[in-house]
Amino acid sequence: MAAQRHVTMNDVAKRAGVSLKTVSNVVNGYRFVRDATRRKVLDAIDELGYSVNVVAKSLREGRSNVIGISLPDMRLPYFAELYSCLAGEARAAGRRVIFAPSGVSRTNELDVLHGSFASLIDGLILSPKYLTGGDADKLNVDYPIVLIGEQMRTNARDRVITENEHGIYRATASLVAKGCRRIAVVGVGGKGVASEPMRLRGYRHALEDTGIALDTSLEIPADIWYQPAGADAVGVLFRDGLRVDGIVCMNDLLAMGVMQELRRRGVLVPDDVKVVGYDDSIDAQYFAPSLSSVDPDLRSVARTAIALLCARIDGVDPSSIDALRSVIPSPNASSQTTVSSVAPSVTAASESSESPAASRTGSYVVSRTGSSRSDAAANSGTPESVTGYVTVTVPSKLVERESTAVR
Amino acid sequence: MAAQRHVTMNDVAKRAGVSLKTVSNVVNGYRFVRDATRRKVLDAIDELGYSVNVVAKSLREGRSNVIGISLPDMRLPYFAELYSCLAGEARAAGRRVIFAPSGVSRTNELDVLHGSFASLIDGLILSPKYLTGGDADKLNVDYPIVLIGEQMRTNARDRVITENEHGIYRATASLVAKGCRRIAVVGVGGKGVASEPMRLRGYRHALEDTGIALDTSLEIPADIWYQPAGADAVGVLFRDGLRVDGIVCMNDLLAMGVMQELRRRGVLVPDDVKVVGYDDSIDAQYFAPSLSSVDPDLRSVARTAIALLCARIDGVDPSSIDALRSVIPSPNASSQTTVSSVAPSVTAASESSESPAASRTGSYVVSRTGSSRSDAAANSGTPESVTGYVTVTVPSKLVERESTAVR
DNA sequence: CTGAAAGCGCTAACAC
DNA sequence: GTGTTAGCGCTTTCAG
Fold first, then answer.
1. What part of A 220-279 touches B (C-beta under 8 Å)?
2. Where is this region: Disordered (chains A, B) (predicted)?
């Protein structure tokens, strides 16, 4: 039997014939311990199979080195991939990860924020589904939060978003470049997907910029961005007797449903219709025919989000962190290009006028918003004052494959 | 500002004008508290935005209500789905879930078991990748463990497995029933997949039982069960100049790669070759053509694993738990059908002799193994003695779709 | 039914 | 360099 129940530091101290504090010193890598003493302690630890009780440590230190992650649904490849990246980056940053699903219900999301889950974590990475811009005050908690995605639009938060508009813009433009002239978009009105307005905007701007007239009958709704909805969308297109030569899908699952249904109806991809998706999920390249898709670069999203959160936890200015330095403007710099202007609501299609050119560039863009210090800074030892909240936009790129090939 | 930093029970007690203990009583639903008192406390809690500090609670109680989950790779649909199910079932059981990736390295897996991660959890659900049967003693820790899958074969553990052999057996037999006579299997020798021998056995038995001669040149290896390997396998089949009319894939990812490559080479599915996969991953039905696949019923796997683990944590005999009652033989019953006889090693193809008929049935089967009490029972208040370890086999079923259709 | 005191395992002051 | 003490927020005796 290797491990007894609850081997404590005290047990180790006794076994090694030293004091409790010395054991603590060794365990925590305190430098000024005699080599002989250290060895004794280490041996005792080995013999007893001791490992620190992080619960006690957490209670005492007031921090746990655990990061909370709250995402809607792991079964969606997008979130599975995102989670995987976040867990990896957290691990690399020396933190553990604890998961609480969001998106179960509004109550559930509020409970994640305000319930006892919070006492387990030093900070939270949140991708809410039910909370909206109006709930901004619900985020006033005593630990730092980094939001991922467009949901819950408020400036007064650190946030990492992907280049939604630009991504779809390029996807659409690439279809035009390949000769498509009647291009449908599938996924309009997607429920609970805050990035839908940006994506629709990207589609429309691409058509405008390439001189193709908008035709709203080609903007096919899909409540749930899931394969069956993609199949249904094709049904709608056929029912209306519309001829299209290109279809932009707001995510890969829709695209798979679309391609499946096209095939069933004897339409060839890419010969008759070219299809492009969004997310570049792992299946996209192994789908038949392989699917061109917009890669949101979730690894960068994760790296940025974790770095940002860790900075806040440590009460450190994000711009002093390596992983963020290249991405965050210096505190002194005047306000940067503002990206993805705050949509007042998720009313989609109506106001297609803003969309600053900046969002069509291909590099990290950051905007500084708000001015309140991070709450974390208030109780961190670090006197370093923390500047305003930050929104990082991670560039996405189009990956071209068979489904948009020219033959 | 809703929440101040660290509102404590003491704060609530002062605010409500009662003692600390009374607050504790209210929070923990102790029955004998005057209604008026309870109301005062509840009001104070609301006003202050108090929620219990589960870290302190854990330290004091010696248990955290957190279940550890350690799986290899969330990007594989199989594990994403499994994780999602586990998290849902844990939630339903009133426990939180904390994740630590396994499969990073052997050291990492040992660290999950013996490192400080353990002090955060009451019990662990583990699907190891590097630890093998020889490491059985590494599982001697002071908290209960439930293993999922075939990896790390040892009787002296609670374990939930799926009906691997039977699943592939039926998949193969269904191809035969549809007229296939030269049936390949893809995925032989899959590295780090302990269920591979069972699956290969299922394939072979199905051929034997239907009177088709084995041809080992049709058993195509694939180290990694991933799309590219599936594509490669088709390459191998072609290179050898072999004609096949059916392909059994050891998982869906392989099947997708196979179908992709077949298509590229102008082979029609299901007309020329029928293909069947394993896992019934969410994409299987939206792949084109939709993929017949074996559904391992991960929701049942998760439900069983969580129920089993919770029983051990609570020091309760699993057979007294509702979710398990129908599945676990009564402690008094003599030893049940033994399922999936313990393979002495993962040497795959060599000993295809055992495989009891039981594993081809379609219902839950349980074997009792070992006799040691759960360690958990030793320090649980419950005097109820815990019986030997249990292996639950969850039945899987074949879902037939387009890729095996007869035309 | 309610209050006071002890202690879960650890770290941070401060002695020695 | 090392030992001693107090206390993180909570539950649990044990009195009242």
1. 227, 253, 256-257, 259-260, 263
2. 345-394
Closest CA to B115 of B74, B57, B162, B70: B70
Percent of chain A surpassing pLDDT 70: 83
Instruction: Categorize the per-residue pLDDT at B338 as very low, low, confident or very high, splitting at 50, 70 and 90.
Output: very low
Radius of gyration of chain B (CA): 25
| Interval A313-321 mean pLDDT | 84
Rounded Cα–Cα distance for residues B29 and B23 (Å): 10
A259 to chain B: which residues are within 8 Å by CB?
Answer: 288
Q: With CA atoms as reference, report the closest residue to B73 among A80, A120, A391, A193.
A: A80
Chain B residue numbers touching A1 (CB-CB < 8 A): 140
Interface of B with A in 4-33 (CB under 8 A): 4-6
Q: Are A76 and A254 in contact (CB under 8 A)?
A: no
Q: What are phi and psi of A221, to 5 degrees?
A: -75, 155
Predicted structure pTM score = 0.84
How far from B95 is each of B68, B69, B262, B335, CA to CA, in Å?
10, 12, 46, 32
What distance separates the 2 farthest-apart alpha carbons in chain B? 86
Taking contacts as CB-CB distances below 8 angstroms, the residues of chain A near B88 are 101
Count the neighbouring beta carbons within 10 Å of the beta carbon of residue A267. 17
Tokens 């037999």 correspond to B173
pLDDT band at B302; cut points 50, 70, 90? very high
- State the average pLDDT for chain A: 83
Please give the helix or strand (H or E) that residue B68 lies within, else none. Answer: strand B66-70
As a rounded value in angstroms, the CA-to-C1' distance for A380 and D1 is 29
Strand order across the A292-295 sheet: A219-221, A183-188, A246-249, A274-278, A292-295, A397-399
Q: How far apart are CA B229 and CA B237, in angstroms?
A: 12
The angle formed by the CA atoms of residues A112, A138 and A118, to the nearest 5 degrees, is 30
Closest by CA to A370, choosing from A159, A113, A164, A148, is A159
DSSP secondary structure string, B234-265?
HHHHHHTT---SEEEESSHHHHHHHHHHHHHT
CB B386 within 8 A of CB B312: yes
CA distance, residue B1 to nearest chain A CA (Å): 6
Distance in angstroms (rounded) separating the CA atoms of residues B233 and B236: 5
What's the rounded mean pLDDT across residues A29-46? 88
Cα four-point dihedral sign B81, B82, B87, B93: positive
Q: What is the CA radius of gyration of chain A?
A: 25
CA proximity to A187, closest of A124, A266, A276: A276
H or E stretch covering A284: none
Query: Could you give the domains of chain A?
Result: 9-51 (1.10.260.40), 66-163+298-398 (3.40.50.2300), 164-295 (3.40.50.2300)
* B137–A contact, CB cutoff 8 A: yes
Question: Which nucleotide does the CA of B50 lie closest to, via C1'?
Answer: D9
pLDDT given for residue A171 in this prediction: 98
- E strands, A137-280, in order: 145-148, 158-162, 183-188, 219-221, 246-249, 274-278
Q: Please say whether the beta carbons of A311 and A177 come within 8 A.
A: no
Q: Calculate ∠ Cα A206-A221-A218, nearest 5°.
A: 45
Q: Which long-range contacts (CB under 8 A, 24 or more apart) does A237-243 make?
A: A237/A184, A238/A265, A242/A182, A242/A184, A242/A217, A242/A218, A243/A182
Note if the bond before A331 is cis, omega within 30 degrees: no
Question: In a 10 Å sphere around its CB, with 0-12 CB exposed, 13-18 middle and 19+ buried, how is residue A58 labelled?
Answer: buried
CB pairs under 8 A between A and B: 164
The type of residue at B64 is S
pLDDT tier at B168, thresholds 50, 70, 90: very high
